[in-house]
Amino acid sequence: MRQDLLPPDVREILEERPKPLEAEIHDPPSTHFRLAAGYLDLDNGWHRDFVVRELTGRDEEALGKVTKVGSMMIEILQRGLVSVGPYKSPEIADGLVAGDWETVLLAIRVVTFGETADFAPTCRSCARSYEVTVHLLDDIAKTELTEPSDLHFTVEGRHGTMYHLMLPLGSTQRKMLQATDLSVAEQNTMLLVDCIERVGDRPSLGKETVLNMPLADRREVLRQVIERRPGPRLQEVTTVCPSCGAENNLPLSIAALFQ
Ligand SMILES: [Zn+2]
């Protein structure tokens, strides 16, 4: 019907009719982030930019079927990670540096629930509890790894043995998250099997090599693998008590940030 044929008052009513509500009710936060290390492709290309997406009700239904925390983290990463550089997920997840699994999970947390998390810690000095908001992108220190060559390093053992190592990748991180039935020592063995490339000028024989390492060497190698791990340092977040000014540790875990 032509509107200029309608009486003026009817035309007015039609023009004032409210528009249908738009489905998009908020602007999604930026989905582009940067890895703390990077993804090394088969042509030695080093990619640091990645894209994640917001989790939805469909994801929540799928995650509801997963009971173990470690498997839940794997599922969230595979669902939320869209791409790294020109590469599409989920195939590349295993090729990321292990510590960057936490970089990616933190980014998925941010686009799904926001950039902040609220806590109510109790001060270790004055025992008062207080409220604190942690900004997940600004308040958490990161260890970065700028060069692909930094993936490889050496550690000298107590008797002069040189251990040639590579930082663990996502494939190791996946195994560790699934290995909840293993003791801590067995998990450490699993980690070292994947990290040790050579001992002196001999290639590693895997578990055989790791189990025969002197205990002091094993601990030192493990300490350096953990210390060099790129990614957010979730265990090192501190807050200041507003009552007495004391600094309190507020160790975070990725799993807790998704609860
Ligand atoms: Zn205090």
In short, what is this structure?
With 259 residues, the chain is of the alpha+beta class. It is built from nine helices and 14 strands.
Features:
259 residues, alpha+beta, four-stranded antiparallel beta sheet
Largest sheet: 4 strands, antiparallel
Low-confidence stretches: none
**How much of the residues is beta strand, in percent?**
15-25%
What's the gyration radius in Å? 25 Å
How are the SSEs placed, and which strands pair?
Blueprint: H1 8-16, E1 32-40, E2 46-52, H2 57-63, H3 69-80, E3 81-84, E4 87-88, H4 100-113, E5 116-119, E6 132-135, E7 142-143, E8 152-156, E9 162-166, H5 170-178, H6 184-195, E10 196-199, E11 202-203, H7 207-211, H8 215-227, E12 231-232, E13 238-240, E14 247-249, H9 254-257
Antiparallel strand pairs: 1-2, 2-3, 3-4, 5-6, 7-12, 8-9, 9-10, 10-11, 13-14
Explain the overall architecture.
With 259 residues, the chain is of the alpha+beta class. The chain folds into two domains: 32-141 and 233-257, no CATH class; 146-229, Phage tail assembly chaperone gp13-like (rbstp2171), CATH 3.30.2220.20. 33% of the residues lie in helices and 22% in strands. The strands form five sheets. A four-stranded antiparallel sheet has the order 1-2-3-4. A four-stranded antiparallel sheet has the order 8-9-10-11. A hairpin with a 6-residue loop joins strand 13 and strand 14 (247-249). Helix 3 (69-80) packs across helix 4 and helix 3 (69-80) runs antiparallel to helix 5 (170-178). It starts with 7 loop residues before the first helix and ends with a helix. Bound molecules: zinc ion. Residues 123, 125-126, 128, 241, 243-244, 246 line the site of zinc ion (ZN).
